[in-house]
C-alpha cells in the first residue's frame, strides 16, 4: 500500500536537500563501497536462502524507482536504493540476475554508480552493466537489451521475475518497462515480503541513524512542543492546529533552534506534525492538522504526534495531554499507559510479534474491560527506511519472531471514547501514545524516552471550578464501578460541597485501608517482635593479655592507661585493671574537710541501661563489682583522673559506635567512573550535609555523575562520598526561593558513612547569598542605589545557581531514563511549595512541603523524608474548636516503626492538609487528644485478628464512635488492649501501657540524658518503686469494677478500638446519597 504525505520534499539525488539550499558545484555524493559490498552480499544471501518462502521462487529481481515527487512517500524501491547505495536514484531500473546486475538510468546517475562495479564483482561475483538513457530517449531499445540478457541467463522457458507489485508504475519510463514485462515471455511474482524481511533487522549504522532521528523527535516534543502548548494554554491565546504544525515542522528541519547538534541537510520530517483537539480525533499517521483553534477548556484532550527522519531513517513519538481531566479520563489514560508499557516490555528476542499486542490487550481486559472495544487494532508497526514496514505490524495475527536489531513504532490508543460533559467539544475524546523502540539483546530500548509520558507530566490543571467534581469521580472509580453514569457522577438536584465529597472519598478509603490491613496482617506482615529500645552490644573487652603487660605501680594511686584503654585501681594493696568500656559513670565530690571522693559505677548484668556484655553470658556464675569509691586529700589528682577517664571513655565509645555502625552497613557496588569519551556531569562549589568530621577548615567540593553513581569529593584525599544510583530511594531538587540555599537531596535505601557519621540522607547545597548582618545601626533607604544594585546582584546570583542546578538535574534525569536504569524508577522530585505548611517535626519549627511521592523538610536538620507509599494512616490530633494549633501523627504500614509526629501546625492549614491527604488517597482521622501510639501498635501486633474483628482503624473515627455511643453501652467502656486484661502482667508491660494519652512528664523522662541515669537510684526512686509495689498488692484485693474504673481513668478519653461483635464484620458506614 502506497503511503503519501504532502507538504514535504522527498530526498533523492535530483531533489534539493531538506534545508532548501542549492547544492554547490562540487559533487556532495559519495557511495560507501564497504557498506555497498556488505549489503549486496546480504541481498543475494537472503534471496538464495528464502527464495521459495519470501521471494516468490524468482530467479530475477526487478526494482524500478519512480520520478521525483513533491509528496513525501515511502516506497520499497526507494528504500532499496538508500539501503544499498545510500541515495535514491529516481527514474532508475535495476535488474538483479545471478551473474549480472543491469542498471538503466540517466547519465548523471550512471557517473555516480560507476564506482560500484569492482565492489560488486569482489563481493558476490556479479557484473554490473549500466545502460545510459539519453534525455529524449524512452529507453525501449535499452529495455530490449536487458530482457534479452534475462532470457539468455535463465534456465527456464518462462523465467520468474520478482517485482514490487504494490507500487504502480509512475512516469513514461516505468510505464514502458511495466508493459515490456507483461508482454515478454516472463512470469511475474511479488517479492515485497522478501524486501521487508531483508530490511527488518538493522545493522549498527542503521541503528545509529534511527537513534539520532529519535533523539531529534523526542527533543522537539520535550523542548518545543510541550513548552509551546503550556504557553498557549497559560496565556489563553488562540492558535490553530495548522499553525502549530507549521511551527513544529520548522523546528524539526532546523535542529539548531532547540540546540540539537544534527546537520539540517540530513534531517527531514516523516509526516507533517499532527495536532488534534476539540473532539475531532484521528489516530492514523495519515491524519492532518486542521485549521480549528487548539481547544483547552476543562476536560479537553490534546493529541500531538511528530516524526523526524535522519539520513532517511524514521522515528515517531506521540503524546496525549489532559487538561483538567476527570476521573474517567485519568483512569483511561493510566490503563493506556500501563498497556503501552506492557507492549514495549514484550519486545524481546524470541517472542512472537503477536505477543506484543496480546500483552497490551490483556492489561486492558483486566483493568478496564469496557475499553477493550475502543483499543486500536494493532500496537504499531516496524519502522526504518519506511515509516510503516510491511510484514511487521504489531497485531494479534502476526506470528513472526522478534530479532535483535528490529525497530518498532509502538503506537497504542483508545479511540472514540465518551465522557460525561455537556460541552460537545469534550464529549468525544481519544488517547494516543507512541514511542520508537529498538529490540535489544535482552531488554527493549525506548529511544524516545526523553519525552515523558507519565501522568504527572501530561496532566495539567488550570481550572479550579471543577474541583468539586473530581474527588467524587475518583471516589466512585475506586469503588470498582466500571461504567459511570450521570447519576453516579453527580446528583441531579443539588451540588455536593467539597467537604461532603471529601468525606465520601475518605469513607471509601477507610474501607479499602481496613481490607488492605486485614490482608497484610493475615499474611503475617508487620507483626514481628518490636524493636523499640534496641540496646547496643559490646564484645569481649580485654585490657591486658597477661600480668607482665601491666604498667609499674605508682604509690597505689589510681592510674589511667591511655594506651591499653584501662583504669588501674588500688584494691587491697594490688593494682587491679578495669577496661574503660565497662565503666558506666565516674564522678567526684569534696566535703567540708577538703576530702575528695571519687565514685566509679560499672556496667553489670541486671541493671537498667546496661549493654548486653557477652562476658556476662560466658561467666554467669561470677560475682560482679557494681561500684567503687576512693577517698583522697589530693583534689587535683582526683580531678585529673576523673577528666582522663571521661575523655578515654568518650573516645572508646565513639570508636566502638562507629565500628558497630560500619559493621551494619550494606555492601555497596563499586563506582564505575565515566570514560574519557563521556565526561561526567559535574556541579561545583557544593557543601555537604552531614559535614565531614575533623577540626580543619571546611572545604567545598564537586558532585559528579558517573556511570552508576555520584561522587562528591573535596581537595582533601579522605573527604570523598560515593552515592550509588541503586541505593537512591528518593532524589529531590529544591531551588532557592525563600530560602538561603539551593540543594540536591538524596534519601537512600541503605545507610552509608559520611566521614564518621552513618546516614540515610545526603545533601549537597550552595548558599545563594551571603548571610551577613549589617552592624551599622542605621536603616538604609529603600531607594538607595547601592542597596538596589546589591539586591539585583543577589537575584542574579540566585537565578544563576538555580539554573546550574536545573541543568544538572535535567541531564541526570536523561541519564536515568536509559533502559538499564529503568528498573530503579529514579527521577528528581521537586517540592510543591504551595502545599507546604509550618510545623515542628523535631525541636524547631520548620516549613514542611509535600512532593509527588514524599513529605519532606530539607532545610533544617535532622531532615524529614516520609515516603507516602509507606504510610498506613494519618491521625490529626488536638483538632477542635478554639484550638490554634493541631498535631499530625503518621502511622506506617510497618508497625515496628515508631510513628512520626509533627506538632504545632497552625489550624489555618487544616483544610489544605486534609485536601492534600484526600487527593493523594491517604486515609486520615481526627481526634481531640494526643494518643500514645506505642501500646496501640503493640496491641495490634500482639493480636492482629482481634484488631481486624474490632473494625480495624475505624476506632479512630470520631463520627462512627459518637453515633454508636448513643445505642451501645459497650462503646462507653472503650477498647481494652489485650496486654492489660490479665492480672498476671509483668511490671514492664504495666509501665509501658500506663496511659494511652501522652503527657509532658513522659516526654521529659524519655529525653533525660544518660548521665543523669548513671548516678544510681536516689531515695525518691526507691520510694516510687515501693509505692508501685504497694499499689500492685492493693490491686489484688480490689473488686473487678474498681479495677475497670481505675483502668478507664488511666486511659482517659483517648479513642482506641471498640469491642465489636465476633462475626468480624466492619462497622457500618452512613449511606452515600
UniProtKB/TrEMBL annotation:
GO molecular function list: nucleosome binding
Subunit organization: Component of the FACT complex, a stable heterodimer of SPT16 and SSRP.
Annotated localization: Nucleus; Chromosome
Keywords from the UniProt entry: Chromosome, Coiled coil, DNA damage, DNA repair, DNA replication, Nucleus, Transcription, Transcription regulation
Physiological role: Component of the FACT complex, a general chromatin factor that acts to reorganize nucleosomes. The FACT complex is involved in multiple processes that require DNA as a template such as mRNA elongation, DNA replication and DNA repair. During transcription elongation the FACT complex acts as a histone chaperone that both destabilizes and restores nucleosomal structure.
Source organism (scientific name): Cephalotus follicularis
Protein's recorded name: FACT complex subunit
Chain residue ranges for the region called Disordered: 463-482, 507-528, 959-1073
An annotated GO BP: transcription elongation by RNA polymerase II
Broad class of where this protein is predominantly found: nucleus
Ranges annotated as biased composition (Basic and acidic residues): 469-480, 507-519, 1014-1036
